[in-house]
Fold each of these.
Amino acid sequence: MRTDRILLAALLPALLLTGAASAQDVPLDLELGYRWTDVSGNEDMFRNQVNEREGFQIRALSYGLGDIRGTNAIDHFRIDAADLGIGPNGLFRLEAGRTGYWKLNASYRLTDFYSNYPTIANPFLEAGSLESQHAYDRTRTTMDVDLELLPGKAVRPLVGFSYSRYAGPGLTTYHVGQDEFGLDQDLKEKDTEYRIGVAFDAGAFSGQVVQGWRQFRGEETLRLSPGAGAGNNPGTILGVPITLTSLTRTSKTDIDTPVTSAVVTGKLGKAVRLTGTYVRAKADGEDESSENLAGNLVSFDILRYFKTLAEQTSATSEALSWRGSIRADIHVSSGFDVTAGYTRRSRELDGYGLVNDLYGSTTTFSGFDPRDVTTILQSQTRLKREEDIFDVRASLKVAGPFSVRIGYSENQADINVVNDPSEVVVPGGQGGQYDRKVGTFDGGLLFKLSGLSLGVDYVTQNADNAVMRTDFLDRDRIRVRGSWEPAKWFRIGATAEQIDTENDDAGYGLDGKVKTYAGDLEVGPWNWLRLRFGMGRFEADNSIDYRIPQTWATATSVYAEKGDSLEGGLTLDFKPFTLEAQLRRFENEGSFAYELDRARVRAGVDFTKMFGIAAEWDLDDYTEKNRSYGTGADYKANRYGLYLRIHP
Amino acid sequence: MVKRSIGLTGLVLLVLGVTGIGRTALAQDAASCGDCHEQSKTFPANPHGRAACDLPGDAACASCHGDGKAHMEAGGDKSLIKGLHGAKGAETCLTCHDVTTEHTSFRDGVHGASETVNCLTCHSVHTPHAKEPNLLAKRQTELCASCHQGPAASLRGKAFVHRLDRGGLSCASCHNPHGRKGEGALKLTRQGEMPCLTCHSEKRGPYVYEHVGPTVAGMTGGCLSCHEAHGSNNPKQLTRPRIDLLCLECHSTLAAGALGSQPPATHNVSLPRWRNCTTCHVAVHGSNRSPKLLK
């Protein structure tokens, strides 16, 4: 948090320079106030989906001065903010600069993350518990600052900084000694990047080169949760109840990644443009972890009972990623363009892990031979992935009311996985050489005449091989769009899309079909009134064969979705009164059936030229269907906001 | 949280106080275009106006609209002035904004200038939306939704979504509207990774024991193997509601030659304890400590 404040404070001088402002192009509009919440039912599910909480916030802020050339340092700036305060998604953005001298773009985001789903990591769901054993309540703070000097000039220095912090408490589990135990988790992760570079524009050639240095620093502390010592398994192992009386694990991860990127574009005459790109990132990671636990536990690895375990792990990982590409854009004639490119992508990973375990007070399963036992696990992993991609595309954009585009691309991926024997669960299927070539043909036709627009897109893909079982061999997508806007006050549009995915080779049985239909209608008969209606249907039928672990029999995993959405809304702007209202309903009859009704009303009135008030009401009403645990995950959440508006 | 709110509010109010919120008249030239066109009075505060601030008289207007002399002499005949509408009009914008990189092409990207979609479909040079950046004509999500009704209805209606309607998240957080065709015109990280890692950077690794290495567009592995980026009907925006089935769809040795192991027979998925794979395999995104992703 201290770093956040320093970073925010760093933005202040740039804003102070605007003191002599003399004109504005974005009038000040500040809205601040309080939000109340009223949630009945499962509050965790509400927070999973919406996570709006009660408290103070800056609901909206915008202000910009676009022409302040009287000052020497700055000629424009603009700030925007939304939902800063109680969150869950807050934004502050700044743009400032002096034309021809400098340009600054900065943003600050605050995002709250919450997770506690009844169906995730919850082995007791069918016994009636709706509490997930994996949950977290964390905040991510993100800041990006980019400064360009001498914009528009032949040589332009670039400086940038990015910062991301992700931290907060959580619950997780640990599988040890033939049981799983709940743990309290404290996580702090920080990702920063400094970068400098230069952009240039030298006649026929332009481009930029940027060197960045990224650092990731992570710390995690885990402790046995109060009351979790009995574990998840109510039974015994070899007649012994498995318990844990204490556990502490601390771990630290450091990853340093220099990133180099360069792009150069050269013009050959007026018609041809060549672009070359090179990006290289080399990540060096180190990870140290220390764990101590005590209890009554069993290990089948050492074929013993044990009472304590002290574990030290250290790991190093290196990942070298690079990408090089060359592309030609040819402007054949007005409205007729051809582009062709070749890209090579590579990622090479080398991992080394050392796990040193000291099992204390061990005995054999017969209860004899007490002693401490040490085991050492040394692993080396390697992954290399290379992709060669080429594509060629042509578009004809001014052929009367028609525009046409066609393209073909091919992606050849070669993947080599060398996993450590310690990773092998069941022999086969985890390491080796995997190749896959995917050819993609796509075409599109657009038609526009007066207010009528029609479009069709078709993509067909064929692969020679599947690397993962869910990879397709054939996939086709067709999408049809249409809209009619005879006047500014009337627009109707619709989209229909179908995607078919297949791999009917023996042992896969992959068959997927996704259909989406959506349409909307907007009517604004008067300037002060706008109405909108929308509806959609989402259908999915996917199936793939799999092997049931405990019986080795073949079964089919079936996933279905049949969702219908319906929405309507109005915007009324009858100064000094404004009103926005929306109603939405979504009903899914598929594998995870539920209904979700949403309503939103926002009313505002300006009392004076400078002050106004806005009131908001939001409703989310979520109901699950056909659940073994009944209605326990349902919730109904009302939120009420009252905001003071200042707009001098 | 309260400190956070107060601190941020204080900063913003301080800044506004110092900068002064009064308005004064714009610096104006006695431009003849301005005799009829009100826009020219506010144009100096427009990014294009700033870029053209050194041009004399009507030259700033003429840099996009051409010489207006005949237009003025004909009493404002629209046919005698250059507009920026349609694919041909977009050529004027491209005179300066013809940005071309590996992933971006203003001329030939997914929204490359055609009669149906062109610069003025999304941007308004003279009357942009007051709260949107880059001279956008309307709110960004509203603009995208006017053609992409499917993803829009999904994001607005489904239960488990990236919420675009509040805070700073928008379509352009992940997609590049000027991106080239292919890979969903995604806004890749500078390193060329999926845009998911821009926010979820802790999933980047590298790990000694990787599950699926960060990749570009889910051809093999990657975030979209398990998650849906837009709206999902399943918790955690997963592609399947049941974790065991999600895992077993890849982790089966039914077909020889595919990457993915088979859980041992001790994993009896008929019992609740074994149906939640991630209860034990907590490090599903990768691990430095456990070959079986147990921690």
Note: Residues 14-31 of chain B have pLDDT under 50 and may be disordered.
Amino acid sequence: MRFFAIYQSLLDVLLINCCVAFSQYVVLRAGVFSLATSGIVSIGAYTGAVLTMRYGLPAWAGLLAGTAFGALVSIILSLPLARLRGAFQAIATISFMQIVVSVTLYAESITSGALGIHNIPKLVSTGTLVVVVAALIWLLSSINASSIGRAFDAIREDETVAVALGISIVKYHTIAFALSGAIAGLAGALLAYNTRAIDPEQFGFGLLVIALATVVLGGRVSVWGPVVGATLLTLLPELIRPLADQRLIVYGALLMIVIIYLPEGIVDTLKARWSRKSAPPQISAG
Amino acid sequence: MFAQQILNGLVVGSVYALFALGFTLVFGVQNILNLAHGALFMVGAFVGLYAVTLVDLPLVVALLLSILAAGCIGVLLDFFAFRPLRKRRGGEFPAIMSSIGANLILISIAQQISQAQVSGFPFGTFPIVIYNFLGLRITLQQIAILCCVMLFTTVLLLIIYRTSFGRQARAVAVNERTALLFGVNPSQVYALTFFIAGGLAGAAGFIIGLAFNSVHFLMGEPLLLRGFVVVILGGMGSVVGSLVAGLTLGIIQTMSVFYFSSQISDIIIFSLLFLILLIRPTGFFKGLRQDVRVGRN
Amino acid sequence: MTLLSLNNVERRFGGLRAVAGVSFDVPAGRVTGLIGPNGSGKTTVINLVTGMLGVTSGRITFKGDDISELPPHEVARAGVARTFQSIRLLRDLTVLDNVVIGFHRHEKTNLVENLFGLPAARRERREFRDRANVLLKRFGMTDYANYAAGQLSYGHQRKVEVMRAVAAAPDLLLLDEPVAGMNDVEAYELADLLRELVADGIAILLVEHNMRFVMSLCEHVHVVNSGQLIASGPPDAVANDPAVIAAYLGEARA
């Protein structure tokens, strides 16, 4: 029991990281270079915290509101981003993240500014998190197997081909943004109710790097990619305890090594190795 | 008061421009968004600081050393973070992720060395001389900063448009494969580009570190964000654009901090960035890189 | 019956006229050829028809509707499919998955059904996979179904591209150099397949350099040079047209 108690909070962190990872995963799978994840997680967290602390709403209402608001903001964001690609999308979404940080710092009457919101009741515990993550895995799996997943694949691999097949890029980008936003908003609210304290700065570049790293490590095609990535990333500090002071160097090096030598991520690379073992016959059999 | 703020803004803005020059150069030539550029800025500040405080070198020498050091780190950055990715397809994502990783490493090393302390230059490192000009208050330091930036910008323009390296860099920026056919060695061009970019960032770091008397391992991060604004506003790959945009940003920032607050200032600046990306993502000046994919033509 | 009609179509890039005053029709049930020297504007014409490029002036009509201003995905949905000069397959997906994506415009399930994996969506997926397998069998590629598309030989990759285009069950098929890199056996096989498709009523616009292929398949050929139409007619007439010979071999030899 004690063993479990010690590691329970680690498990909670892992599960929440999974949710954040899923949010980042959805957009990257669809070929959208959005880095807005941490901004929307912030919105979800503050929505949940404020609704409960200020208006006394129950957890389920806060979670629902966080999810819905996250999806809404994300969809609104997708409109101007529709014309941008690559580095420009990245920069636009990073600036969105900065705007969120600044707004949460500034709107002190609602968010208590830099002090953050504390003593949020612990309305979400491990059980809820496990259910949420399981539900997300199921949802994302069925999406991947459906026409949405097929469209995402086409758009990600080659937009020109996707368009030539009749796939509307705008439609599917919007779906990706909406899904990603909903998941991020949910993750934020869960974070608020589980860790009980939030402040504006924790939803900046640091969280963004974590979100990206999970997908880089795990892979952006299979739904297990973000799960593996989040698990590794959460456990990493424990695994490298002796190197605690050099933690960031380890993370940085890991990120570079993986993106250079294992660009598809762990899960997708393994899947590719297992299913396509040899090259096909080259003669024209007819 | 108003005019004073504009003056202050111009000075700050000129350093933003200096920082952004290297950033936009790398993007223009290599199509890479180098998120470790802020770290190069920080390296320059630290090297300059230690040159002055530990080795007691004169300011100009310290400046040159910061440029050299940051330039070399830039070359190393290119070698370890970007070179292995050059043959890869996959768009900008891998390079950006790699630069994030490199950034973490550089910041962490700096954190270790500086033990997370905020350091400053000893009092009087730069003589405090204040002039009164047309009712405006301007310090010798501010004049020196403006002169430095103008000098570096001019040198950069000369390099790009008057040297053989500059021609090669421009050729590679337009089309790497064709440049190869003309005998250009892209690897050399890329390495040298990073050296110049790093040098410029390092110079900016030293200048800011000295001017605000604050050197710490995270000082590059807020500058990176400012760099985005400058580069988008001015046009990716445009030297003149970076200059104008940097000055503009400096003014906007100084004014909005003065009249409102620093959070409002951030909100204004990043909303502006967002707006520009919507209306005119390629910026307002022509640069080295003309082809930007923005949907159907 | 004319399926596709180009009317005085022009496309400028700044001061450069890539395509100027091009007019021709593509009838259903026939293979129409579009040939010309390198850089003559053939691929630009295809890009204009598919909507990847907008026309500077002129009109393009398809099945009676003006498609000049339509965005590319809507042109595709209207029943136009194409292959690409440089093969564009989704390299990391299997051959089967590449063909399954071709069925996109025939999807009948809605967003909700796909979001939650409802039976209708799963049924549609099975149906598409079955239809894809039928296509693979028809093209003789069943053995390759589960290999990554990027691993195949050049000739096979071209076949997969054609399969994907055919999967869309288009009314108009635009083929941009479909037999480049294929050996004669493969080219003949493809020619037979195209004849079958045309017999079913599809219109085909074929851009090709392989003259034997063009001559054996096309009833009617249009020749472009420097963005302009310089000759039209049955293949043997066009082959002997002095203007065409001059375009390919240079003025001095005419």
Note: The radius of gyration of chain B is 19 Å.
